[in-house]
């Protein structure tokens, strides 16, 4: 069981940038990938971006492609989400998640190798974008 801790959320204005961080408790993260999701009350949790731990392959939701960038630092067991040109509709609780190691090769992008019920999740961090 990987314990994930997000940080970096807060209140910003439209057009601002923000960086979220997520640290995994493993001495060396042993899963396949880590990623970012967000959820607005009353709506389904939404995939944003994923990154494969070993080779750094990234995958983005169309809604954030070009504005958000996911990156990782293997030495710190951490991933980051750089969010630019923030909009009021980006207001949500942002969650970090870890996909377990894959037992066999798969062409599925990071965070799509198994169902969300198999993921480890962080507690979430609130991002509020004011207009």
Short description:
By secondary structure, the protein is mainly β. The chain has strands at residues 4-7, 10-13, 18-24, 33-39, 46-52, 58-60, 68-73, 78-83, 92-99, 120-121, 125-130.
- The averaged pLDDT comes out at 95
Gyration radius from CA atoms, angstroms: 14 Å
What is the helix content? under 10%
Overall shape: globular
Low-confidence stretches: none
Strand content: over 45%
Q: Gap between N and C termini, in Å?
A: 39 Å
Please outline the major beta sheet.
Answer: 7 strands, mixed
Counting DSSP E segments of at least 2 residues, the number of strands comes to 11
Quickly count the helices: 0
Order of helices and strands: EEEEEEEEEEE
Oligomerization: single chain
Structural class: mainly beta
Please describe what this structure looks like.
With 131 residues, the protein is mainly beta. The chain has strands spanning 4-7, 10-13, 18-24, 33-39, 46-52, 58-60, 68-73, 78-83, 92-99, 120-121, 125-130. Strands 2, 4, 5, 6, 9, 10 and 11 form a seven-stranded mixed beta sheet that branches. Strands 1-3-8-7 form a four-stranded antiparallel beta sheet, with no helix packed on it. A hairpin with a 5-residue loop joins strand 5 (46-52) and strand 6. It is globular, with a radius of gyration of 14 Å.
How are the SSEs ordered, and which strands pair?
Elements: E1 4-7, E2 10-13, E3 18-24, E4 33-39, E5 46-52, E6 58-60, E7 68-73, E8 78-83, E9 92-99, E10 120-121, E11 125-130
Parallel strand pairs: 2-11
Antiparallel strand pairs: 1-3, 3-8, 4-5, 4-9, 5-6, 7-8, 9-10, 9-11
Keywords:
four-stranded antiparallel sheet, about 130 residues, mainly beta, single chain, seven-stranded mixed sheet
